Amino acid sequence: MGRVVTPAGFGPLRRKEDVRLVRGRGRFVDDIALPGMLHGAILRSPHAHARIVSVDTSAAESHPKVRVVLTGADLAARDMAWMPTASHDVAAVLACGKVHFQGQEVAFVAAEDRYAARDALALIEVEYEPLPAVVDARTALGPGAPLVRDEQPGRTDNHVFDWESGDAAATDAEFAAAEHVSACDLVYPRVHPAPLETCGIVADADPVEGRLTVHATTQAPHTHRVLYSRIAGVPEHRIRVVAPDIGGGFGNKVAMYPGYLCAVVASTVTGRPVKWTEDRSENLMASSFARDYHMRGEIAATRDGRILAVRVQVLADHGAFNATSQPSAFPAGFFGVFTGSYDLRAAHCRVTGVHTNKAPGGVAYACSFRITEASYLVERLVDVLAHDLGLDPARLRMANLLRPEQFPHPTPTGWEYDSGDYPATLGLALEIAGYDELRAEQAALRAGYERTGRGRLLGIGLSFFTEAVGAGPRRTMDIMGLGMADGADLRVHPSGDAVLAVSCMSQGQGHETTFAQLIGHELGIPADRVQVVQGDTDRTPFGLGTYGSRSTAVSGAATVVAARRVRERARLVAGAILEIDPADLEWVPGRWQVRGNPTVGVSLTEIAAAAYSGRELPDDVEGQLDASCVYNPPNLTFPCGAYLCVVEVDPVTGEVRVRRFVAVDDCGVRINPMIVAGQVHRGLADGIGMALMELITFDPDGNHLAASFMDYLLPTSMECPSWELGETVTPSPHHPIGAKGVGESATVGSPAAVVNAVLDAIGVRHADMPLTPAQVWRAVQGRPLRPDLAIR
Ligand code: MCN
Ligand code: CUM
Predict the structure, then answer these.
(1) Domains along the chain?
(2) Ligand 1 centroid from CA 230, angstroms
(3) DSSP H helix total and E strand total for the chain
(4) Which residue puts its alpha carbon closest to atom 3 of ligand 1?
(5) How far, in Å, is the centroid of ligand 2 from the Cα of 275?
(6) What is the mean pLDDT, run by run of 10 residues, along the chain of 792 residues?
(7) Residue to mutate, 288, 367, 371, 551, ligand 2, most ligand atoms under 8 Å from C-beta
(8) Cα–Cα–Cα angle for 284, 319, 544, nearest 5°?
(9) Which positions fall inside the Aldehyde oxidase/xanthine dehydrogenase a/b hammerhead domain (predicted)?
(10) Is 742:665 a contact under the CB 8 Å cutoff?
């Protein structure tokens, strides 16, 4: 660790893409208008669970502006009623026979304009026979629970999977021998990523060329192309998927949605382009949700607070279809990192997935594949342990964190953390916060409250997280059989300017800037002379895309390796120009020069011109200046962070105000510290949202109770303090520039800090999120509610 140095080419460069984005010149899917384009709309189920007795589309079809109406039966006739999901399940495209959740897609209309399409939905007559719904995961496996997936032959219950990780026997032995055990039941409620831009598509099936062009809001264009190809039985080269500018994804735009496929079919049937854009309620009701984990955690320790083992049981609510998007071999995502940042002797978890009559729960919402749940669990457990043993939560953490000399660290659940200096990271957060003074202020405020019965209480909440980002390697991680490795193609033009094409896809993370900076760092080409091409399967190499904060760790590594290959090629050309053995040349940013004689050398610009010129080149140099790389990461990268949240709580009204938030992140070497800070700011706001206000909940009949921003509350700048950031740097030993991902770190780490702070203020051992004023007030009274009981 030590002093933070910014390597050449890196630094707080302003985002290149903002030149168009902040001027309203971005081009989003809904900005696209093709000649003759039709507009789609979806009829959705009003019931959470019902048999479809009949569907009559005749009135809608005779609407003068309607061009096609699609039902489940129409899709079944094309063998397209069901689509594969990443988790070896299938999900309905349009309901056939029955509906499984409220808001499920039942029919699709394409009409001359958006209004006509909506009007026509009202003309479709669907007769439903309502069935009892199962909404609570805890009753889904019980006797008499309604069967959600009875269309699957032989199915008798709502069980999805059982998965375990760690050593059960060793863990049980630690618990049996431990001096102290703390246990806690926690719910990580269902939440939604709620990006600013909802999901949408413009599908254009060209019957003459036999080509399908799709403009869609997707974080993973190549994966989507493979999916379209498999579902429609059309080879990949006949499909082009373009993701233009995207107004936020946060995981919501990883999955394939029925509206996309319906638009493709409607375009095929009508021979005209079809646009479909979700509205906000549709997005909140039917697109990928996150979390919905019911967890029982236990932590074993000595009486003086040496943590020995953690044991966890999870009930995972996957909704009606197992439509998660994590690597195939990980049914509970990367939940296995629930051992957190601590030096444990043993750990074990058992996760059971169940179906309910709710929209398919993805793993989406800045989750790094369930690490959000894992991190929240262990960081809550550590605070519960501190509460039970009467220990200070900061000192308890410091005493149990992994020490720098323990890296690379094999965890009890089979991961290998690459690097980190956890004590220094926590130490810096405590220092920035002024921890001891805060505790003194807390004691004074509490004494005042106890004397007068009024006033605010101060709460100080900590969380220390370890993230796991940058999936593959391809040998152990695939999605639908596609290995998690990504490509980068780099071409330096005769002018010395460069074009980089990558498989990842920015939704606001600033890739056009940071990936250009990677080229600047490796080749000395200024970032404004590097064009970054992304989001177009016709113009970019194959790769699985942007999620799980994998772009820097995987595509970034591919970019660096490709740039180094170009540099080596340039060395040979430089040798030819200078008539000197290439082995005698040394690289300084932007230039090959003679070792020991720096006045003799050639710049990359001169080398590029020569590589395309009529000049004779060495036999093993073909000419031109380009290179590619497909990067198969040897391991994930493991960023970490120490977060400290300070809240003021009014115990009479339950109102919470976040006064301060200190976040020290270690994401290895930072390419653009300003973009990293922006990523962290965003994730911290996520944490405040989830901890205090965000909740997707249902009534017992499965009616969705949060289908608008009136009910699904998001934090604004009003709820957020001025963030106080710090950094430590332990480079990843296996990443070519030592970078680790950061895009989801703050979302993973912050919820526990906020919850720990609120509970610390009111002296309560545990209460579930979201800690709304009502929930806090009840917790003060000693009777907090379960989040699924719609706290208002
Ligand atoms: N970066 C850096 N130095 C590092 C690490 C990252 O400069 N050591 C930069 C990267 O180059 C990139 C940004 O920070 O410009 C985020 O990088 P990374 O951690 O690699 O994450 P991804 O680019 O793969 O982004 C995905 C991640 C995920 S999975 C979600 S969800 C999320 C997030 O990013 N969605 C976002 N941040 C988001 N930010 C915005 N604005 N919009 C979203 O939808
Ligand atoms: Cu899981 S949300 Mo992000 O990985 O796209």
Answers:
(1) 3-24+486-631 (3.30.365.10), 32-131+196-248+253-286 (3.90.1170.50), 290-406+418-471+635-781 (3.30.365.10)
(2) 29
(3) 18, 32
(4) 670
(5) 25
(6) 72 97 96 98 98 98 98 97 92 97 98 98 98 97 96 96 98 98 97 97 95 98 97 96 97 96 98 98 95 97 98 97 91 97 98 97 85 98 98 98 98 98 98 98 96 94 98 95 97 98 98 98 97 98 97 98 98 96 97 97 98 91 95 98 98 97 98 98 98 96 96 96 98 98 98 98 97 95 72 40
(7) 367
(8) 75
(9) 23-132
(10) yes
Contact yes or no for 683/745 (Cβ under 8 A): yes
Determine the distance separating the centroid of ligand 2 and the alpha carbon of 251, expressed in angstroms.
Answer: 4
Q: Which tokens is 299 given?
A: 């932590």
Distance 193 CA to ligand 2 centre (A): 9
Side-chain-facing half-sphere of 157: CA atoms under 13 Å: 12
Residue 791: predicted pLDDT: 41
CB 39 within 8 A of CB 276: yes
CB neighbours of residue 173 within 10 Å: 14
Pick from 615, 745, 616: which is nearest to 678 by CA? 745
The protein residue whose alpha carbon is closest to atom 33 in ligand 1 is 743
Distance CA 764, CA 782 (A): 8
Give the CB-side neighbour count of residue 548, counting CA atoms within 13 A. 29
Q: Which ligand is nearest to the CA of 745?
A: 1
Q: How far apart are CA 294 and CA 351, in angstroms?
A: 10
What pTM, to 2 d.p., does this model score? 0.97
Q: Is 80 in the pocket of ligand 2 (CB under 6 A)?
A: no
Residues 6+ apart with CB under 8 A from 524: 8, 9, 589, 590, 591, 604
- How many Å lie between the centroid of ligand 1 and the Cα of residue 192? 18
Q: Which atom of ligand 1 is nearest to the CA of 510?
A: 15
Assign 783 to helix, strand or coil: coil
Query: Rounded to a whole number, what is the largest CA-CA distance in the chain?
Result: 90
417: Cβ below 6 Å to ligand 1?
A: no
364 touches ligand 2 (CB under 6 Å)? yes
Instruction: Decide: 297 and 335 in contact? Cβ < 8 Å.
Output: no
- Closest residue (by CA) to atom 9 of ligand 1? 676
> Quick check: CB of 251 below 6 Å from ligand 2?
yes
Distance CA 656, CA 650 (A): 7
SS3 of 438, please?
Answer: helix
Q: Do you find a cis peptide bond into 408, omega within 30 degrees of 0?
A: yes
Ligand 1 atom nearest the C-alpha of 515 is: 11
Question: How remote is the C-alpha of 145 from its chain's centroid?
Answer: 32
Contact 151, 91 (CB under 8 A): no
Distance 369 CA to ligand 2 centre (A): 7
**Are the beta carbons of 300 and 70 closer than 8 angstroms?**
no
Label the pairing between strands 66-71 and 105-111: antiparallel
Give pLDDT, residue 288: 87
User: How close is the Cα of 511 to the center of ligand 2, in Å?
Assistant: 16
Note the pLDDT of residue 789.
Answer: 54
Closest CA to 97 of 60, 126, 59: 126
Question: Between the CA of residue 76 and those of 70, 80, 95, 231, what are the distances in Å?
Answer: 10, 6, 10, 12
And the tokens for 230? Answer: 């498999």
Cβ neighbours of 726 (radius 10 Å): 18
pLDDT at 717: 95
Estimate to the nearest angstrom the gap between the alpha carbon of 148 and the chain centroid: 27
- State the residue for tokens 């953490």: 397
